[in-house]
Model the fold of this input.
Amino acid sequence: MEQGQAVERLQELRQQLGLHAHRYYVLDDPLISDGQYDQMFRELLDLEAQYPDLVTEDSPSHRVGGLPVAAFKQAEHVLPMLSLDNIFNAEELYSFEEKLFRYLHSADSLRYICEPKLDGLAVELVYQQGVFTLGATRGDGLIGEDVTAQLRTVASIPLSLQGNTIPEQLIVRGEVFLGKEGFARLNQQRQQEGEPLFANPRNAAAGSLRQLDPKVTAKRPLQFYVYGVASVPEVLATTGQEATLRALGKLGFPVNPLIKCCQSITQVEEEYRNMLELRHELAYEIDGMVVKVDELALQDRLGATARAPRWAVAWKFPAIQATTKIDSVEFQVGRTGAVTPVAHLQPVEVNGAMVRRATLHNKGEILRKDLRIGDTVLVQRAGDVIPEVVKSVVDLREGTETNIEFPQNCPECGQPLVEKADEAVVRCVNPLCPAQQLQKLIFFAGKNGLDLDGLGKKNVEQLVAKGLVKGPADFFRLDPVLLAELDGWGEKSANKVLEAVAEKKELTLERLVTALGIRRVGEVTATLLGTHFSDLPALMHASREQLVHIEGIGEQTAESIFMFFRDAATLELLQELEQAGVRICPKGGRTKEGVLEGRVFVFTGTLNQLSREEAKQLAKRFGAKVASTLSGRVTDVVVGVKAGSKQKKAEDLGLHILDEKQFLQLVEQEA
Done:
């Protein structure tokens, strides 16, 4: 790029970054995703590095956050609250270490501290004589907003320090954030009150802390983790970041237990992989990992630029949010008749995957979010969750957008759709709707149903299209010759499917109930039913009262189960399954005492003989409970290949660790 073009582009970037920083830091209402902001900021830094004479004093590269909100008193930081430079891959990590060596004029190995990068709001807390006296946001790095009264309502922030050795003055820095569960509850409450939803937990935390009335802040479930100090008081006598955090923990500050010391840059890279794997299992959002040189003396020698310390970087995760446009909307009919609007998007990469479609949930969500065809929207994808449209960016509308019209009739069978006052969804109530029938078959054969190996969505669609499968029982009557003749199959594939189907002819009651796809009945409820009833006839003849009295089953679920087993189509289906050779295993997989009763299992890594879902079902069959994250109630951790950080954490917690073979031996021994 020539210098003249660079001048124009830099001016454009500074203007855009200033606008987006104001929306993000001050208004808590971003127009673009974090990933897009990072990309623009990286372009700015690259151009300024290429043309250093074009760097201006008002460049975003010289600023940290947004200007303080005028409604709050200002609070000046004793030392600047700097931001962090970002890196996005292992190559940039090693470049970071090479820069450290150059600044230090040494190639001696360095020790690093790796910390989860919380997606929250950075704050500074000042303690005088051990008492919390002032709390401020980062602001522009030099001056922030005085939010002392609001921070006093955050339960995890100590109002007075503990211990015998208390510094005369202590200035700590940390992150205020909102957990995933608290964020969901807050947005649910705002939806009920007709208020706009927060786009993400970071915006929710910032919005909560910037409430002028501390009583409002107090109602929000904010949390806090400390990550450092402005300067280390002599009385603490620490020489490293890890030791400083330990000292702060003794003073009463909450320290993230996932913080880890690494002895080399290669260990840092490994820890990043572990943290990335753990990301979606945490109770709060993290958007990367902070890497810091541990030794404080080296931090002092390395110093800082105008905006960031040289001794630390933030290794960002792939973005889980991005902005794109809605091109069109189609309406899909599910197995229960629920009609779901799905947006067709201009392709955009989110969390390492190319997203072209996203759910709009239901008619009410479209109206509440005021979504339109042609809108620029914020799209989110986290873990294995189906991508969803979070919000529309109203400020970017051009006037050509059109309303999304919900159909009056089923797009598949043409029957009138039904909209009940007590339900959020619009339904097709035609039991013969071909779309419902197909989705029920896909679910029955899929991983959440019988998990018939080789019968994924595409293959089931092919079998239905060829007329080989019309109902669930037909899976158990497949003709090997006809299967082998299908496009893309062959004898080997056909035999594999037939073997998988034959293995599932003997089922537990809970497995069959799950596969039947009864409305409001998922895996947990199916397990409750399988535990409570001795066999299928006992369940089929259960009264509403019997079902309601099972702990964990509510009235609506009980009614759904009761009516399902009194439907003539259900009775015909169960009879066909029996005629096809399907049998329910007699209850005996658990002893009367429930041999694994009281034990809580966590499964991590890849298992060889079982799928993760099969392992969970096996543990539950013997009376155990299954959790997804490690906590004090977990008793056993089953580790597979690439178990990652969970295994290390389980070892640190002193939990009972088994490999897959030991778990299977345990189950066989108890059977």
Q: What stands out?
A: The domain at 600-670 is CATH 3.40.50.10190 (Rossmann fold). The CA atoms of residues 603 and 638 lie 5 Å apart.
